[in-house]
Amino acid sequence: MKNHLVESWNEGRSTLNGWIAIPSSATAEVMARAGWDSLTIDMQHGLADYQAALGVLTAISTTPTVPLARVPWLDEGIVMRMLDAGCLGIICPMVNSVDEAARFASACRYAPRGSRSYGPVRAATVYGADYWKQANDQVVSLAMIETAEALDQLDAILGVEELSGVYIGPSDLALSLGVAPRFDPDEPKVVEAITHIIKTATAAGKRVGMHTMTPEYAKRMADLGADLVTVGSDLRMLKATAEATVEQWRGLQ
Amino acid sequence: MKNHLVESWNEGRSTLNGWIAIPSSATAEVMARAGWDSLTIDMQHGLADYQAALGVLTAISTTPTVPLARVPWLDEGIVMRMLDAGCLGIICPMVNSVDEAARFASACRYAPRGSRSYGPVRAATVYGADYWKQANDQVVSLAMIETAEALDQLDAILGVEELSGVYIGPSDLALSLGVAPRFDPDEPKVVEAITHIIKTATAAGKRVGMHTMTPEYAKRMADLGADLVTVGSDLRMLKATAEATVEQWRGLQ
Amino acid sequence: MKNHLVESWNEGRSTLNGWIAIPSSATAEVMARAGWDSLTIDMQHGLADYQAALGVLTAISTTPTVPLARVPWLDEGIVMRMLDAGCLGIICPMVNSVDEAARFASACRYAPRGSRSYGPVRAATVYGADYWKQANDQVVSLAMIETAEALDQLDAILGVEELSGVYIGPSDLALSLGVAPRFDPDEPKVVEAITHIIKTATAAGKRVGMHTMTPEYAKRMADLGADLVTVGSDLRMLKATAEATVEQWRGLQ
Amino acid sequence: MKNHLVESWNEGRSTLNGWIAIPSSATAEVMARAGWDSLTIDMQHGLADYQAALGVLTAISTTPTVPLARVPWLDEGIVMRMLDAGCLGIICPMVNSVDEAARFASACRYAPRGSRSYGPVRAATVYGADYWKQANDQVVSLAMIETAEALDQLDAILGVEELSGVYIGPSDLALSLGVAPRFDPDEPKVVEAITHIIKTATAAGKRVGMHTMTPEYAKRMADLGADLVTVGSDLRMLKATAEATVEQWRGLQ
Amino acid sequence: MKNHLVESWNEGRSTLNGWIAIPSSATAEVMARAGWDSLTIDMQHGLADYQAALGVLTAISTTPTVPLARVPWLDEGIVMRMLDAGCLGIICPMVNSVDEAARFASACRYAPRGSRSYGPVRAATVYGADYWKQANDQVVSLAMIETAEALDQLDAILGVEELSGVYIGPSDLALSLGVAPRFDPDEPKVVEAITHIIKTATAAGKRVGMHTMTPEYAKRMADLGADLVTVGSDLRMLKATAEATVEQWRGLQ
Amino acid sequence: MKNHLVESWNEGRSTLNGWIAIPSSATAEVMARAGWDSLTIDMQHGLADYQAALGVLTAISTTPTVPLARVPWLDEGIVMRMLDAGCLGIICPMVNSVDEAARFASACRYAPRGSRSYGPVRAATVYGADYWKQANDQVVSLAMIETAEALDQLDAILGVEELSGVYIGPSDLALSLGVAPRFDPDEPKVVEAITHIIKTATAAGKRVGMHTMTPEYAKRMADLGADLVTVGSDLRMLKATAEATVEQWRGLQ
């Protein structure tokens, strides 16, 4: 078993991450074949819960795309279930303290490096019987830094040894800084915070993921040092394209 | 109860139809809010069967969009079930003879105009208790003309009184004429056949629907006389946009 | 394996049948515990297809209630699937000729009495390995008589040896006779037709089922000779009670 | 976006709430059309989890009925997911302290008034792109007061500024007071506690919801000052009506 | 796109087919990784319908196993849907005449070799955009010979040019010959019929599939000339192993 | 209502528990009929979440098998939901302290013995209206002892009065003790720990459950004093049997 993301990052290449909000293995299979390096099932603001996510993971496994999940909240139960289901990385929202970061990181590691419970039901089927021996090195844990509080605690959070890195949520970060939430922000206060997180995390030897809406902004973030960049989501792409199609037709009348 | 499509057609306006291949009420709700005049659940080449289609119909009912279905095959059971479920029109594939056209049309009409069985379980909930009195006038039946055989029988098929009109499937039509199947065809043989169907059906006082991939081609068809034009499908839009996004990112590296 | 309906009918007792339109095993379990002699999953005008019906059948099997299904149309595939899934009887809509009746009856019987294909996947699990030996005697097939055409062919239809009996659909029968479709009809033309079917079928040694909306009307039908009477449906009961509750509250303001 | 409940309460009118325990969009659509002011998906003692609830919410959105949810437990993850899914209010069980009330209230408000994470995936689709600007004023948070402990802390709980109000669970309240749990209780100890909560909350400028089984009892509660009254549940209505129907039939034999 | 079954058969190797009766992508993924050459979703006597089968197909596509389906009945709609969904072969039950065989074979071929409708929604995603060009040569159609009537018509059925071959259903064949249905039959009358079908089909240049319960019997059939042999089914394996485990425990008490 | 497990244990008989990882009511029905004393739905390392578990519970209720669940984590919400859904016992993973044990035990008992919230939606349907009166005595709570930390706290944990007993997870226990995780362990360090738990718990008057893979090992554990022994799981049985079948076929070539 190899997590291709880790490999790419080790070679200095930023990876492209797709975002799955649609709770359907049918659309997931189409997404998986589009060529993303990884796909993240968003179980916080997306529309799939565990059972639907399981079907999505099977769909992703029809390709070499790396499966990740953003869990709804810092909850050991769902973190471990998504790992057992075959995710090679977890993004955890709203990690605001070193204690939360440590709890999250621990849930992603088997003893003695953490407290993950043994029983990799789908992971062992997909990655082989020795999955458990390699999981601690291959599974990625990314804590979301998206509040002023988390910004304050950044150094401490980055000091959690078993935490792989951080993931930047620009909307909540903006809201927390008193700026209207939007994607691909240009407000100096927000851009500065994002830049600070990327630089600090990279300096601390941690990985950084960043949420964006366009390949251009993603490139900008990769150039700043982001290891993983997300662009858009399946549901947003569908929505935007459908609306543009209808609008184009109306314009022709 | 009013079928807004019929109203628009009576006023000489072509309507824009969206196409649903994804078996998910979550994506259907996004499609329904994009502004199409109607949405057709494709139960032939799309991915939803009855149970999934039911959820899609509920999603469409959150908006004034008119729900239609393309059934998998000429089968009275599924034609009637989709009408009971609230579809205001049915597109039936591969109608190649006047007998088939008559069987299909009859399945869409209550006695004495047809043989539809009474029991509009969801339709009566959504459209009111007197649904059954208006259904015969509001429900649209469109027979697909998509083979050389059907072209030969076109006049006879158009002579079926209770049939509302025809729907052109350009891919199968092309295949049947010995041309490679593709959308928005420009091959003279296929364009000629399409034009012939639109003109003949219109002259016979029947409605015509046409399957296209772009608003431009749809406009061309509407100008030829098509009453309803379909553009793309949810799954194709998602696929194309996802692939374009990945490609754009790769281009920036 | 015993079909308790057959037993009751043989002892001269009419049985009470519930009607399931809701595609949910959760509501089915509640229905099953309410004490009906049998429950029929309505796959024609109800909202469940095969997969949902399977869950409903499991729910019914938590009690001694006898499971039946009304199939969407005369189609051997679904008739046999519902029997394999454990239904002890099938109601088939719109049987209008002796040929249709014979096809339907044959689909419910193993060779040499019919053409049912062997493979009782759930039925053998639930009723035992020797299910197939008893199925031909325990499974009930009821052909719906609900058109003027079927009325004309009644004697011939009743002559089909392997057909267990008929089931009266008063709404379609009314429509077919030019009367507005409604439940528990009092129009002489419809009542007369119903009475004729019950008397003729009984005289021919066949079983008769009848669709009603109230216990009172059901009793009237049982007194006329109906062996099985259906009262209401789960969805109608929910709808009526919810509406009455809201209305009662509004009245108190 | 407007939460019609808030509007009604501001005008001094008590609202009628329906209760959804059945995990089905099919029954939800019937419930939604029955005329309740709001419908609450019960994810604690009802049978739907997130994925099923999503379908129910879509069904409710076919009407102007206001959607609410009772979450299984005080858990930020599910509170925020249900809001993102379009609920305009959350009922949280077993809130026994001011800390719990504050955590709950905070989860229902965006910064700076709370800690709700941004990403209103379905809410923005349904209520518009500016949903997030209005959500803090339109979303209702009701903490359940259902233990002796909570009664003791009532004043402190009511002092939580961002909490909209309380919801009374009479069964657990009774159990906690040493009385057998039942709906529409008449035991003085329980009635007294209920009255105390309604009066105290109203005096503190908070909203009060109350769980009942009959319109009459609901009226009594509204007269005491309850802003929102729940009557029955879909599953109970189905169960009661089915049992009554069978009993009526048995009585006619 | 290559159908590995065709390749193996051309090289003279019999292939091992697994049988899927469980409507779950979770179990299908486990089955797919067990090493079968192909897996057939049984939509006739198994428990999955179209929507569940779609998830099973995705699960199979995580491996090189070839996906097939047995359809519920000779119905063009479902034959074509399963091909569009990615099945590389269809087994059709109860083919008793040359007309039925021809209808079935035609449904599996695009014009001009047949009447399959164009729209390979999942097949083109999985196998590539030129799927349609290769489908006619790669898709396998196997007609079930399982009645005395079909035995009589065997030569004529084998004469249908576009039919790939036949599949032997020993249980129904036995029933039809007046023998108790069971798997791996030894009754001379049945063995003789099976041998006759294998020899005749092979001589006619057609492929032969055979349903068995044990590897030993399957080997016997392969030695007789069967190209594809099915052994057991997922549900039977689970049932047998569970029963054996319980029995073993009881024996230890 | 009677929990047959409690009855058996009181009579000194160890009970056999089956393990359900497959999220399907179809396979659950087969498991339920295999004769296990109880079946546990594994919601931690298995593949079902609440909604799927609900269908599994209905399937189990077609037999006298006692339904249990292992919840994903110590979370009052899911513990209570599974009890409301009809489970007669809960296994809770990773209970490492007396506080955690007390929280878990309390969630399984109604006041005054605990803090379980009232609303036994399915339990009351299945077990009767007086379920709540008997639940405190019939519902079993088993805390998993599977870490070195829990071993240290064993006496304190066993001192929690309302806790019914403990359940031993040998894989995590091994990992925690620095031994490779596997089933039916023979490493002295692990066997010693298991023996210690069984003896200590039994001496403290608590019940003990143990996870094994074979009837032989289960017997060994029962002889040591285990009240409930689990053998294998549905998914493992399917996987092992499928792999063995393919291997056997390959060996015959």
Automatic annotation (TrEMBL), chains A, B, C, D, E, F:
Keyword Lyase attached: yes
Pfam family, one: HpcH_HpaI
SUPFAM superfamilies attached to this UniProt entry: Phosphoenolpyruvate/pyruvate domain
InterPro entries, A to Z: Aldolase/citrate-lyase_domain, HpcH-HpaI_aldolase, Pyrv/PenolPyrv_kinase-like_dom, Pyrv_kinase-like_dom_sf
Domain of life: Bacteria
Gene3D superfamilies (UniProt xref): Phosphoenolpyruvate-binding domains (3.20.20.60)
GO terms, molecular function: aldehyde-lyase activity; metal ion binding
Class of the enzyme per the UniProt entry, highest EC level: lyase
PANTHER family recorded: 2-KETO-3-DEOXY-L-RHAMNONATE ALDOLASE, PHOSPHOENOLPYRUVATE CARBOXYLASE FAMILY PROTEIN
Protein name: 4-hydroxy-2-oxo-heptane-1,7-dioate aldolase
Source organism of this protein record: Stratiformator vulcanicus
